[in-house]
Structures are given as structure tokens and as C-alpha cells.
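Escalation from tier 1.

The customer reports that the assembly of three entities below gives different C-alpha cells on two consecutive runs. Tier 1 could not reproduce it. I'm attaching the input and our single run for tier 2 to review.
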Amino acid sequence: MQKHRLETLIPKLVVAPGLVLGFAFIYGFMIWNGVLSVTASRMLPNYELVGLAQYAKLWEMDRWWVALKNLAIFGIGYVGGAMALGVFLAVLLDQKVRAEGFIRTVYLYPMALSFVVTGTAWKWLLNPSMGLEKLMHDWGWESFSFGWLVDSEMAIYCVVIAGIWQSAGFAMALFLAGLRGIDDSIIKAAQIDGASLPRIYWRIVLPALRPVFFSTLMVLSHLAIKSFDLIMALTSGGPGYATDVPATFMYAMSFTRGQIGLGAASATMMLATVAALVVPYLYSELRGQSHER
Amino acid sequence: MSVKFFSMHVFSRALLYVTLLVGAAFFLAPLYVMVVTSLKDADEIRQNSLVSLPGGINFDAWRLAWDSACTGAQCSGLEPFFWNSVWMTIPAVLISTTWGALNGYVLSLWKFRGSETLFAFLLFGVFMPFQVVLLPMSQVLGWLGMSSSIAGLILVHLLAGLPSTTLFFRNYYAAVPKDLLNAARMDGAGFWMIFRRIIVPMSTPIVMVTLIWQFTQIWNDFLFGVAFSGADSKPITVGLNNLANTTSSVKAYNVDMAAALIAGLPTMLVYVVAGRYFVRGLTAGAVKG
Amino acid sequence: MSSALKISGIRKCFGKGDKTVEVLKRIDIDVAPGEFLILVGPSGCGKSTLLNIIAGLEEPTEGSISIGERNVVGVPPAQRDIAMVFQSYALYPTMSVAENIGFALEIRKVPKAERQTRIAEVAAMLQIEHLLDRRPSQLSGGQRQRVAMGRALARNPQLFLFDEPLSNLDAKLRVEMRAEIKRLHQLSGITSVYVTHDQVEAMTLGSRIAVMKGGVLQQLGTPDEIYNRPANTYVATFIGSPTMNLVEGRAASGQFVIAGVALALTAPDNASKPTLLGLRPEHIRLSDAATWRGVVNLVEPTGADTYVVVETPAGKLTVRAAPQTQVRPGDAVGLEIQADHVTWFDQASGLRL
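Tier 1 run:
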């Protein structure tokens, strides 16, 4: 009997450190960060409560608005671009291509790289005087100019391009897996019924891809919101703060400019955005799973 | 499944392959440019085209990147940063994988009241923005005397990786048939015996996936590296970023490219050798939710 | 005489509040040493739950289980001195056959030499010596089944539990393995409890059968008792294939009146209400002279017999006829009953009279 009780205790003991530390790290720190965001902290934490003053200050800053605008541009461009390219490549690769494995490896390898490596490489490729522009000139297209990287308005689009390059292969892998999961016999039945190819795609294939579509959207979106490495490496947030995003804003405020309270407030805003996106998705996924059981 | 968009007609197939090849070129181009640039000397870079092959294979840039390029105040190349990354990544990968396996084992096969809810809450850690833990974590590291140290970075990576590794193992072990466990219990095997003799031997695929996934995540990390490291503990991603962004008089692009390749080679090599585990990790994590 | 297994007052409920489901309503069974008890019934009748409770994999809500003279409620499975064979075999995939068989002994720290001997003994009994070094994935279904039994036998337990072990095998293999299990039981003499939904297995293997439905024990008896003196209509129609024919009627002045004809049968004394007449197909004969008439609906030759379905005003009846019977759908036939093999049931309650 004693042994039996011990048996039910051991699993709980084993998982306890993980759960305790994990929760402290996730929720404990989340709350702590929230507390910091309502204090007057600057260089060092100072627990004098100031209500929502930091948030008010945040929303008055031009730099924060620039960061948000860039997040929107980057988010839509990166997520939309990677998914579009991913679907396209997945459909192509699904056509029983020879050397499919090799091609897939080529499309996916950028995911194995650090965003810093990607940023560094693309910084060189899009270098205004030595990169793409010079290449076009060398190839005879004299009037081509590509100063986007140093242009306040256009620099963010360079980040979009580099991001799509990095992640399109990932989207492709997910969509390919989704396509492969579609039951062959349904397609065959539709073909026997006389459905045309576009119709099959529209009515059968695309609807069947909805779950994959949503999970890819989820993963790419939260990657976009968290994007820090790529921007730091590609533009350092510049020129000036023209390519700042919330993540780089937070880092700058907290670690470079001695504005911890403000940094914490921006972090909370980022958390709220991710939570708004991810929590409903997770909830519906887990709900679905427990119903299956 | 294969909905034949392009029939076996020669023209359609040719178009298909051409498109795929253009795609491949798009993905390979930056790598190609990085490699050839890293092998050129400064004159070649200035004069020749971006995509031209180097005149001769010149590893000078690589040597510089490794042992004497300037990364801010220091000018000792990427070598120290490389080793920092090694000492940080390997322990973190091994410990987080083991920890994830134990947690996943309990949460899938030894469920107790509330364990599923706890797991659901833990899952949020896979998605949450780490910006939210930066400030508290630096405080905690300070209290522990671990700020600006490799040990501190290892600790952060362990905590940050806990939700993902637990997720991987928990989903994998959830597929173990209940009868198998009942049989083991009837034979007299307890918690540890079942783990050691039955579960671990059948875990090779998921261990591979987790090791590779964690290695890639931790080696490639930049955020924690830049926020929590000190002068002697910066990982290679930070070193690379410093190197590429130093405002010295003359920009040595070949060195920059060589440095980027040095930083990127370990994970690329892992990917080339064991890529299918990496892909499995990606698709398992995302598709399963 | 002591019982090897005593199930007393076992109740099992799942769920809470208004969602409570009573899976086992109150089960009492005494199993004598060396008996082969079958738990049979449709899906959801609670037989697997009962087996799990005996095994210790689940706890009862009420009641007690005694193995030997020991009350084992609360005792973990490994300490009940029982062994179990699972429907899915549940062999350890990364261990060899020999390791699978010896695992329980290994855990109990039985010395290696003794373990090897025992494994060899068991392997010989089951004729799997040549498979000892293989992995489960390299074995066929029937071989895996033997290894699963070997694993259980190696323990030399007081009680042997079987959870639908033959369900995953194809028909021919199932017949072979059934004979194997019977042979092994005769050799080892270990008290066994065997769960199945297949009534043929129940009849051929069991020394006693417990028919269950909806968590209630419908009848506990020998195969003969179950077949020839079923306690209610459920047991009567569950056991025996094709099923027993049930005909509605009333007893009146020494005869039994059914739709369209009065049969020369005397119902039991307490049969004044609507009564069911139970007739097994082999106890009816096709006869031109009989008074009870009907029309042939379907003819099913099986080689050894021919089953004829006859449509009468009292309903459809299945008759077991000789294989060479020459009837065709649409023929008019008469039905003759073997009066000493009929069973009477009260229509309202379904109980045998």
C-alpha cells in the first residue's frame, strides 16, 4: 500500500520542477514585467507606482508609432509573402517531381540559419553601392537604383524580403505536408464525377488545407511580432529608427536608453498582441483534442 | 496525393522544372554570393560583379574573420565567440532535451488531476514573446550572480526551451499504447523502470528531433545573447553582429561574409546531415499546435 | 472448498453528479481453483472493466476481490500474483522475445540462470524456441500471441487473465489459438478468467460462463446450462448461432396458441400471461405433415447444414435442416417441434419459466 502511494507521488515530483520553474518563467515574469510597466523605473527598477503613465508616454512617442507601422508592414508582407510563396512552391513540388528531396532541402535550408546570418548576408546583397544595384549596372541596366536599405521609407521592405527568403521554405514544408495528407480517393472520386482541375482545387484541396493554413499563419505571425534578430542585423533599426519594430524598440528602451518602465510597457503591448492571436487558437486546438478523446 | 496540375505533357513539365529551378536559384543565391565574396580580396569586390567567381581561392578573409577581425573594442576575431557558443549550446541542448523527455513522459503517461490544464498553460511558453522576460530575468541573473556568464545563458535557454521540448516528447509519448504500460505495470515495473527499459529505447526519433531543434534554436539565438551576456560570454551571433556593424574606416565585406558563414555553418551542417529530423520538428510543432 | 477468485459485490461508477454512469451494477462470482471462467457479452457490458478491476488496473467503487484467500483491493497489480494477456499483445517493442518473457522475472531479481531455464521451459511449451532472439516487429500475429502468453506463463501466477486475446487474429488462426489456449490450460491448471464477445469462444473454452449485459450478470453457469437452460431471453439469443427462435403466444386449455395455429404443447403452470416459446433451429424439423405451416423465405447452405428461414403468421423462424434438403424460396412447408427441447419465457420480464 505504501509503495502504491509513493508511485502516484513520484511522477508529480518529477514534473514539479519543470512546472514550477516554467510557470515562474512564463507567468511570474509576465506579471513582474507588468508591474515594472506601471512603475517609474528608468535605469534601474524603481517600484514607485505611477499607474499608466508609462503607457501614456509610450503611445505619445513617434518612435513607437513608427515601430507599430513597421510591424504592420513587415507582418503583412512577411506572413503574406512567405505563405503565398510557400503555397505556390508546395503545389509545384507536389507534382511528383524528380529530385524532390533535394529541391526541398534547398528551399528549407534558410530556416536552419540564424536571422543574424540572414540579415548580414542580405545587408551585403542589398548594399546600395556594391550589391544588387551594382550587379544590375554591371549587367547593363544602368538606370537601376536600389537604395532601399538606406531609405527611411523603404528600408522596412528590405526586411520583408529577407524574412520571406528565410521562411518561405518553412511555409512550403507545412503546406506540402498538408497536401500530402489529403485523401487520394476523394480526388479520384471528384475526377470520376467529372470535376475540372481548378474546381477540384477550389472545392476540395483548399478547404482541406484550412487547418494547415491557420497553424502556419499562427506560427509566422508570432515570429513576425517577435522579430528582433533580423532587424538588428540587417538595419540595426535604422536608418535612425526608421525600421524599428516593437521588439527592437523594447530592447533599445530597456538596455540602451535606461527607460526600463517604458521598455516593460512596450513588452506588455507585444505580449497582449501575441496573446490575442495565439490564445484563441490554442484554446480551440486543445478543445478539439479533448473532444476527440 | 498529386493533383496533376501539369500533365505529363513535355512543355508543362519543362515549365514546372524551370519554375522550380528559379526558386532554387532564389534560395541559393545569397549563399552563393556569401561564399564567393568571402573568397575574394578587397579589390575584386570593388571592381568585379557581385556574382562573379573569385580570381583565386583566397582564404585570407576567413582567417581574419576567425582570429583578428574587430568586434567592437576587441580584435580577436570570431574565435572566442565561437567557443562561447559551443560551451553554451551543448550543455543547454543536452539538459533541455533530457528535462523535456522527463516532463513529457509524466504529462503523457502518468497524468494526474489538473496535469492537462497545467500542460495547456505551459504551452503558451512556446509562443510568448521573450521580450516580456528580459527585464525580470536580468534581475534574477543578477541575484544569482550569473549575469554576463555562460551559465546564465544556459539557464535562460533551459527555461525558454522547456515548453517546446516538453511538447515534443509529450506528443510523441502520448502515442504509446495504454496496454503496453498496463503490461509493464503487471510485470512489476514502476515509474523509473518503465522509463528506462521501455520508453527510452523507443525514443530515438523524438530525441533526434529535439536535439536538432534545440541546437538550432540555441545556437542561432540572438536576443538572449545580446541581453544577458557580458564581455567574455557573448555567443557567436552577437560576435557576428558586432563584427558586421563595426564602423571602422574600411568595410571589409569579404571578412563580413566569411564571418557570417562561420557563424552559420554549424547549423547548416546539422541540417544537411540530419535535415529530415529538423523538418519533422518543424511540422510536428506547428501542425499539431 | 476455497475459491481461487472471489468477486463480491463489485460496483463501478464513472463520472460525477448527474453524469454518473454505473458500469458494473453488482457482481458476485466465485471461481474455483483451476476453473476457466469466461466473461462474455456485447461491447459496453462491463466485462473488460471487471477484468481490469480483478487485475488491479482499476479500482472498484464498492466491493472486494479476493485472490486465493487474500483480499487484494488496493494492492497494486504486480503484487497480486496474476498475469494478463492483452488484446493487442502489448509486447515490449525494443526487447527480444526472450527478454519479453523474462521481464517480470528480471524485475523480481530472479537469478539469471533460473530465468533462462524458465524462459526455455515456457518457450518449449509454446513452441517458440526458435523465436527467442527476434523482436516483436519481426513476428506474425499468431507468434506474438504465443509470446504474450509465454510472458504470462513465465510468472507461474495464481490467476491468469485474458482480455479478448484472439480478436486481432484472422478466423483460421483464431481456431488454432483457441485450441492452444485450451491445451495450455489443461497442462498448467492455472485458474483463468477470459473476456470475449465471441460466444463460440465462450462455449468452447469455458468451464463456466458469465453472460453480462449492461453491467449486470445475466447468468453464471456451465456451457450446457447456458445453452439449454438460459436464464432469460437475452442469454438465449446471445448464445447459439443462428439465434434461438422466439415465438409469442398464450397458453389456453392445454395447448399453446400462437398466431394462426394452436400447438400441442403444454406451457408451464405459471404461464397465463403472454409467453414466449423458445426454439433452437436444430429442434425444429421441416415436415409436410405438421399443422404449423409457413412459406420458405431464404435458404442458406453452409455445407454441413442448410438453414431455412420460414415465414409464418407468428413470425420468421430459422430451421436447421439436413444439408441435402431440397427447398426453394416460395415453397410451402410445415414445422415440427421437438417438444422436450423447448424453453419457455415470460414475455414481460424475459425470464425463463
